[in-house]
Design goal:
four-stranded mixed beta sheet; Immunoglobulin-like; alpha+beta
Amino acid sequence: MFPLLKEAGPRLRRIGVAFVALTFVAATAVHAQSVNGRILGSVHDQQDAAVAGARVTVTDTLRNISHATVTDDAGDYVVDDLQPSTYKVVVEAQGFNGFQAQSVPVEVGKDVRVDATLKAGDSNPSEFRNGVELIYRQFQDVLQKVGVQPIAAVGQPFDPRIHEAIEMVDTTAVPDHHVLEELQRGYNYKERLLRPAMVRVARNGRG
């Protein structure tokens, strides 16, 4: 114990001990700040709009220790108290492709800036196709419920009342004057012609 504290009363001694402890804690914090570094930056999309709520994960690749945070409303983030090492920065946000920065060095008491520009996420082609097919089936169901029926075309004898011939094609694939290909579907509405089917018609010399 310090000599002055020995001579002071109990209350002053307690105050003195608390002061010494606070001084030690403050000095330790300052030392840590001067030794450790930070990784900071901003996250935007390709139109330079801030991406708020993006998850930023900073991983010490030597010690395999990760630190995570999220971007604020301005798209900014800060990960502090990082020991000098090499880091990997990963940015993830819903609706966007991920971003990675490898081998980011953090030095003693230094700030390292890692900004990320996120691209809109790539849609899954099979999911997109399935979605379109589902919408198409639902649309067909609605049409049928209100009395709209598609006109049969391919393989049927050409009927100028319901078919509109765009082209005659020499082929033996179907009989003469039968519909070879449908270019645009036709519809009847409650047994009345709503739109003729646009078709290619076979011209088959064999009949």
